[in-house]
Amino acid sequence: MSFVPAWELRAAFARALSGMYGTEVPAYTTLVEVSLGVNTDVAAGAEDAERLGSIARVTAERHGAIRVGSPAEMAQVARVFGAFGMYAVGFYDLRDAAKSSVPVVSTAFRPTEAEELARNPFRVFTSMLATDDRRFFDPELSAEINRFVDARELFGAELLELADAAIAAGGLDSGDAERLLELATAAFELSAEPVDHDWYRRLEKISAVAADIAGIGSTHINHLTPRVLDIDQLYDRMEQRGITMIDEIQGPPRWHGPDVLLRQTSFRALDEERTFRFADGAVGPGSLRVRFGEVEARGIALTPAGRDHYDALLTEVDRRLAADPDGPAKASVADQPDIRALSTPRQLTARQVWTEAMPATEQALDEAGMGWFSYAVAQDAPHVDAPQGGEGTRRSLSELVHAGVLERRPIVYEDFLPRSAAGIFQSNLAAEGERDATRDAEAYDLHRLSELIGAPIADPHGLYRAERAASLQQAAERLGTEITE
């Protein structure tokens, strides 16, 4: 038998989930087809189309999303995804990121090394129900939810054993690999088991997300997301196909400067036929609307200073919209021909704010210390004198970049934005749910979630910082000189 390393398992897992989800949600297949068409057209028409990733990587790229009900279930998720070389990165608190009731905290499982991301960057955004947050759940309901969740089994013993073996060996023999993929894919299929109607609707009054997590006896892929090089163009093409999209694109606006962080949108959640069990014991048909088709466009990762600046710009957008909600809509589209009709007042306002205050080039973003970049010795780099001792053994980074010895390469943002994720969730909910703001919120952060699930959660900035440092070390060794900041 041949050995299948973790990255090949990960790529096969992403393909298997994509095939399964496309069967369950046919509109997803349309989304993938349109994404491929947009990527092909953009790559053919722009010289720098692959600056944030090769067309092969972007076309194969997916991120999924699942939801679980307890730290114990999250800990099992960490084992399953660990088999595919995917590790917890980042902490996201969606509880206050949307007007709707979204009582979850989240992390994302993904590769953490640049080489592994280049091979296959599959990520799964994983949310956990915060049943101890009294703004959403009183003690009685919280206890009921916990009993329900504790009684179910999301991942069988065989799957977990194979996952542990894959983690220990960095992969599996082909026979075990095939079985792992079969079991892992099946674990995220939509269950045909009848849904307890009264229990589900009781949770749904508080939050549709809570009902999706704790109202049924299994988990499932909530959405599966391809990556696209022009998300505005994709939005237009999906609407032309007769597929209703949510009202706006989440994240930074479309503008003339460098793309940063993450832009996301989705088609609206569709009614899906499900079987319900009613209070009298009868079983009958019904429908739920919880799954949707998301798509994303990724930009440059921002440093902590860059994220602070980004957050400040969002605050300014909110301030301007509060003062004049319709002001941006008065601007003539004829004066701004690259803005499509789908642009909302928020996106138009954000575009104005970005134009006024965001660094307009990669160089400016880097020199302001706001973006993460790696550096490589240019192929046609001018000669650098061999070090002669003393100051000759050191060169400044800015000097080498400006001299054309080193070239700047943007580091792609591999993570998520809580406000955007909550915005996608909110846009696909039928009702806002219930939240008692007078009660105290339960405190969560990266460290607490890590302790609860018994697995480390990496800080995204630490990973980007390490990638930058490694590139500088490699460049210094090749040039035979120390590179100073």
From TrEMBL:
Keyword line: Dioxygenase, Iron, Oxidoreductase
Record-linked Pfam families: HGLS
Cross-referenced CDD domains: VOC_YdcJ_like
InterPro entries per UniProt: HGLS, YdcJ_bac-like
Family of this protein: Belongs to the 2-oxoadipate dioxygenase/decarboxylase family.
PANTHER family, per database record: 2-OXOADIPATE DIOXYGENASE_DECARBOXYLASE, PTHR39479
Full protein name: 2-oxoadipate dioxygenase/decarboxylase
Native source organism of the sequence: Naumannella halotolerans
Organism lineage: Bacteria, Bacillati, Actinomycetota, Actinomycetes, Propionibacteriales
